Amino acid sequence: MSYNIKVMSKPAYPLLNTFSYYSFLEGLLSPEDLVAASQSLDIQALALTDHNHLSGVVEFILACQTADMQPLLGLSLDFIATKAEPEAVCRLALLATSFKGWGNLCHLSSMLLDQTPPLKGLTIASFANHSKDLICLTGGQQGPIDLLLKQGDWARAGEILMTLKQTFPDQLYVQLDVRSPNDLERAESLRELAQQHDLPVVAANPVLTRTTADAGLLRLVNAIRLNTQLDDPVLESLPFDAVLPDSQEFAARYAAFPEALENTFEVAERCRFDMPLSQVRFPQLTLPNGQTANEVLRQQAYAGAKQNYAEITAEVTTRLDYELEVIAKQGYAPLFLVMADVLAHAREIDVPTGSRGSAASSLVAHCLGITEPDPLALNLYFERFLNPARAKPPDIDVDIDSKHRDLVLQYVFDRYGKDRVAMVSTVSRFRGRSALREVAKARGIPKAQINRMVKELPWYHRSGRSRAEDPYAELRPQWPQYTEIFDQARQLLGIPRHLSIHPGGVVIAPDTLHELVPTERASKGVRITQFDLESIEPVGLVKLDLLGIRGLAVLADVADFVVQKYPERFASRLDFLDTIPWEDAQTSDLIRNAETIGCFQIESPGMRQTLSDIQASKVVDIMIALALYRPGPLTGGMRDSFVRRHLGQEPVEYLHPALKPLLEDTLGVILYQEDVLRIASGIADFTPAESDLLRRAMSHFDPGKAMQALQKKFVAAAKRKHNIPDSLGIRIWELMYAFAGYGFPKAHAASYARTAWRSAYCKVHYPAEFMAAVLANWGGYYRQKHYIEEARRMGLVVCAPHINYSAAEFSAIRIDNNVELYMGLNQVKELTTNVQKQIFEQRPFRSLADLMVRVTPSEREAENLIKVGALAGLGETGELLAELVSGQWRSGQPALFQMESAGQGTTTWASEDQAAAEKELLGTQLTQIN
After folding, report:
1. Contact 680, 701 (CB under 8 A)
2. What pLDDT is attached to residue 734?
3. Residue whose C-alpha is closest to residue 359's, from 416, 329, 397
4. CA angle at 128 for the pair 126 and 133, rounded to the nearest 5°
5. Secondary structure letter of residue 278 according to DSSP
6. 644 to each of 312, 380, 623, 653, 659, how far by Cα in Å?
7. How large is the average pLDDT for residues 589-611?
8. Stretch 711-737: mean pLDDT
9. Is 105 helix (H, G, I), strand (E, B) or coil?
């Protein structure tokens, strides 16, 4: 490329209009790759101006910090310049000059995307309250001024420029976007227009990828974004020449505009500010009598302790005071108060919840009602949950009945402010199947052929963001004509496609969320942050993990039945669930015999085998089984030994007497992650905080010098304190190391074991209702047909959907003192919600004619109901199908010719036909064929 002009020698001009792959199928580079590529060109300041989104900003800042590069935070925003042409969407580029400017970027991006559907673009009025501390670039070749000059409309271009100047006083730069010599004439016109309006010009062309070699892939991702094919003319207007220039090339492009080059440094300097990361930001709480969060937390913790313990012993007081001191010092009291408040509301509205993770190690959390297991009785380490040596807020993960989780989430939004709360996003990236499907589609491959190829790929591929492995290796020999498609699909692996909703994360900001974090509206209408979990943490927002769990929804459904049947005994779901005893002979027998299909966390073949192996019969045995069926004990080689010791078939032995007080509860075996902490503390005098840091380091399998130093310290301390020989000290270390990365936290096992026990209790004492609830919530480990088989093994009758008996979902129905399981009407293919509602309101029905007169199903809906057996007892299937075809149905009237057609033209309907219809229309086969 030749410009035929003198090249300027000034190096490393800041780049002010670059895009990462968080522009979602516009750019190709990750923020890290963009920074690394720029660093290799000796660029010292770089602006990230992704299209409409700010999702990559935190990654970008961290990458710039590592590279010692100045990050400029920006946004390329869709803009509608004129009311007369609302479809004429162009772009402006905005750069923040301060933290307030960053907040305005968040507001503007959210204003555009946090709508259903998203706005096509912002108007000039949108900037009225959000232009402060923002530098505005006019958008280059995709901006309103360039586009109008291209059309020869100087007058309109001048009008818009003046409007922008008024909106961004002393902050507007006319952007010169020069990518080839063909752009020089228009750039000269832009400079002339800028001089007329006393505005500076700045050199800034877009950067979408590293080199021109990526142009083909860039075109492809944009075709995927626009849901079109590669030959679509609409793609011709996109900037596929927007590659990363080196300093010499960049200077050459703008040699005729030296002031534009100089102004890149001016803009970069104006945008210099520190984005405060790792500063924890707690929600604002309204507390009584001017009290602090720490004071309220102490009061609530001791009040809960009085309820949980018959006597507040020295042990309780010492542990509570220690935990409260650590929490206060770290400033985490608001997190505990918020979570306690949310769970108190869940109990108030009768929604079952359960704890998970290491939070059950906290006595404060237990006393606040956040967790169930007693950490004192279970000897749980608080440092496993909140390590005072780590400056990071602890994770408090809570499981919530998935059917009623939205009620709890709505409370969070209402209680803490809709403008301060959002769900956390997760980044949906291309994986093997999605990449191949989208590339093939963009290249015009027939859908049937695409389906054949994709079908041969696994649903999940472990490559993740990596392209090192080839998920298409086995497909290439079968379809050698598609080699380029496979190559391009592989290049897309790990590139973001869009944002989705994180399964549990909710953030609460201390003030308006948009002052710190941008949001958008997810497909389900839920507000989500544009930052995923990895970016939310550095920003410092408080995150609650409120996870919807089917196992708790099953318990809620069973509880609903029990409360309905025994209103004099139980007032609510939780009233029933809380009274389930922790010792019950029938439940013990069920668990010991491993008849736990459908039971939370203990239904897989491996778990059932483990329950059987250890002859589990108590909650503590379930804890053991949950921990034992993990790679940790298997890796350590102690699983079989533990089983024999547990059954009394082998004496308990310890590698050294000093291990006995540490591992006595686990029969000399490292069973839980907490055991690693105990050994580190008891053998080598590591503090609890140091022990947890050691466990974390081991779990990352770090073989480096730091781990070698820790090993030497451990072995030396073991020898000094307990006279343990070096060889044995190394052996103990190796067992810890092998276990730490794969072990199960005892706190987590304790929480899950309680829900598992309650599941087993319900299966024993309310078998029909339990299996109906499992089926209604679409099971867990197995497919629906396996749960139907289990129900029949238990002696239960499983029936197809029926218009007179079925609920919307699977349910247990009592008919003539017999309880039978009926599949829900919502499982019938193509049966609309409206027709289901009419059926529920109008039943019972006496005949097909009765149904057709009082309900308005389409012929297809009625046919499907007949075929699956939903009119059983109202006529033979074949006759009903014939009647449906011959009848002329009118609302409010019997079918014409009904009497004449009945029994005529009967369709043969064998059990094989019934089974085939069930598989097609219900997704599973109920009819058993011998």
Report:
1. no
2. 84
3. 397
4. 110
5. S
6. 39, 25, 17, 12, 19
7. 96
8. 90
9. helix
